[in-house]
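Feature request, filed as a ticket because there's no other form

It would be nice if the structure record came with a short human-readable summary line next to the tokens. Right now we just get the raw output. Example of a typical job, pasted below so the devs can see what we mean:
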Amino acid sequence: MNPATVTLTFVMIWWMIFFITLPIGVQRDESPEKGNAVSSPKNANLLKKAIITTIITAILTFTFFFLLSNGYLDFMSPRE
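Raw output as currently delivered:
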């Protein structure tokens, strides 16, 4: 596999998973500071979500390329 393909696949999956995990566990701040939106989160836990996203993405990317290299997924052969 080309390293650019693996990197691009990892980045695309990472962003999709990251956007999925963003709203999980977010609680609205009941008394926001002046200048903040009423809907601003109390604690977004971005570092924790980024780490979890990276772990999940690594597993999914490895699984994808494992299936692709062993012939379980094939995007090049013509359909009959």
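Something like this underneath would help us a lot:
The chain has a mean pLDDT of 89.
Residues 18 and 53 are 6 Å apart (CA to CA).
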